[in-house]
Amino acid sequence: MTLPARNPPIEGSVGFSFSSSDFESIALHAQRLFGLHLPAGKRDLVYARLIKRLRALGLQDFQSYCRLLDSGDEAEQQQMLSALTTNVTHFFREGHHFETLRSLLLPPLLEMARRGDRVRLWSAGCSSGQEPYSIALTILEMMPDASRYDIRILATDVDKEILARARAGTYAAEEVDGIDQSVIGRYFQIAGGSASASAELGKLITFAELNLMNDWPMRGGFDVIFCRNVAIYFDKPTQQRLWGRFANLLRPEGHLFIGHSERISGPAETLFKGVGVTTYRRVGPNAAIAEGTTG
Q1: Contacts 24+ apart (CB under 8 A), 212-215
Q2: Fewest CB atoms within 10 Å of the CB: 57, 149, 158, 162?
Q3: Which of 157, 173, 153 is nearest to 165 (CA)?
Q4: How far apart, in whole angstroms, are the C-alpha atoms of residue 33 and residue 51?
Q5: Lowest mean pLDDT: which of 7-11, 156-160, 216-220?
Q6: Fold topology of 95-168+198-294
Q7: Whole-model pTM above 0.90?
Q8: Residues with active-site annotation
Q9: Could you confirm whether domain 10-84 is CATH 3.40.120.10?
Q10: pLDDT tens, residue by residue, 127-184
Q11: Does pLDDT of 249 surpass 80?
């Protein structure tokens, strides 16, 4: 990864100093543990995000915080991840993806399910859960008895706290305002200003913690993968390995949705064909990309 130049320490409003070596240490931890790419231009952002952790922990300086990370404190490593990443999402975000899912991808997939075949979708980097619930709502609107068939959505995230929120499936009532009222009435319970996903929605989704930088327990056969606004946190080589790994898990003609500012690059370009705005179809040979490329 690219390390910052030797800038003078940043002084905060409460006297925290943030030296270049402090930044480099944090950036290396973020890269090694979670694949996050923190170039020199992110130095002020890292400072602003992490001084809240120093205050919460009662630490006097960033050197002490770096020592805490060095000690292998997994809880604080997770807190660092939460602080440095932005979990901005909402139901049916990037609506063109859901229109493609609804009009082009799901009709043949749901017909496969009716014939007894399995259908698998993956929300990789599911954040607080709006994405997998939006996928489930789309399926249920087209096939109300979908839970009777072998249709499942895997929803994963590396952030334990945000994943717990996703699993709970409870949102402020205004967060579901954009969803048709008849759909809300069928699949959410509204009480006390909160909207809770119904058991019917939950039947389709399996939530699991997963660090995309580590080994994946899944063995493939996905029909659709959503991984949107996740790769923006990674450097180019890490992104390219990620695209290759997704290609290896997609069925022939399976589809990958990525974020609006992301693009497929590297060796995996030969395995995907762009078929819409940040929408790609798996093409080419079925053989997996070599391990040295996929990571």
Answers
A1: 212/35, 212/124, 212/125, 212/158, 212/242, 213/33, 213/34, 213/35, 213/238, 213/295
A2: 57
A3: 157
A4: 20
A5: 7-11
A6: Rossmann fold (3.40.50)
A7: no
A8: 49, 157
A9: no
A10: 999 999 999 999 999 999 999 999 999 999 999 999 999 999 999 999 998 899 899 9
A11: yes
